[in-house]
Amino acid sequence: MGRRPFRVDLLHPVQLADELEGHPDNVTAAVYGGFVICSREDGALTVARFDPPEGVEAVLVVPNDQVATEDARRALPEELPLDDAVANVAAASLLVLGIQRSDLTLIARGLADRIHQPRRAHLYPRSMELVAEAERLGAIGATISGAGLAVLVRASLQNTGKVM
Question: Of 17, 55, 115, 159, which one's alpha carbon is 20 to 30 angstroms from that of 78?
Answer without folding.
Answer: 17
